[in-house]
Design goal:
Ubiquitin-like (UB roll), nucleotidyltransferase activity, seven-stranded mixed β-sheet, five-stranded mixed β-sheet, ThiF_fam2, 8 helices, alpha/beta, Rossmann fold
Amino acid sequence: MKVYVNEKGMNFQEGIRCFGIKERIKPNGDILILNGFPIEEDKVVSEGDKIVIIKCGEIPNDEELKNLMMSRHTPYVYERIKNSRVAIAGLGGLGSNVAIALARVGVGFLRIVDFDLVEPSNLNRQQYFINQIGMKKSKGLKETIKNINPFIKVDDVDEYVTKENIRELFSDIDIVVEAFDNVENKVMLISEVLKNISTVKVVSASGMAGYFSNNLIKTRKINSRLYLCGDEESEAKIGCGLMAPRVGIVAHHEANMVLRILLGEEKV
């Protein structure tokens, strides 16, 4: 039977157990992961199972690193999304967090779009660092993504999104993540993409301010091409700010919905 060990297909006899494979392949390994879950008790291996053996402190080569990075995934997720193309419009609290999540899961191509600079008030919720203050957000985020997952392609676009450039920016993309602060820009992006680019789906967000209950945040399917994440009520205003915990929850709703769409799981 065929089993994948550190992503390499290998043939073993029926009934072989995980520890037996470890002893053959990497007896000094410290961590043994079976189908995305680390195990301490021996298990019988089945056809098509994925086993990853890791030696703590050992620096892998590039090919090994790429495989080991995805070892905690649900099996066969990475294979199904590695050729996907996702764009993120707006790289603030929502967009920067969505980008990091999709980079970690291994979406093969990310186009990250923003015209703004990193400034100190961004650091309370956005995925930037003190040494990136003054950098273009698109450049700073690309730098961070490359330090997390150097195996994906990142197209950083320093541009303001308008009706005139939407087709150019997003017509070659599978899913657009709307991550703007401004309501008018949100509405413009959603309506223009849905109206003018029939092949693209949109994941949007509304309502993430303050420290209200986590349980008010939800994901709704608006129509066959539009999904909306958030509580749809709590807007940022005087006395009600945007902070990392709740913004992050909504951003990860968006990222998980993107993943579900890419995997063909479009129910919310």
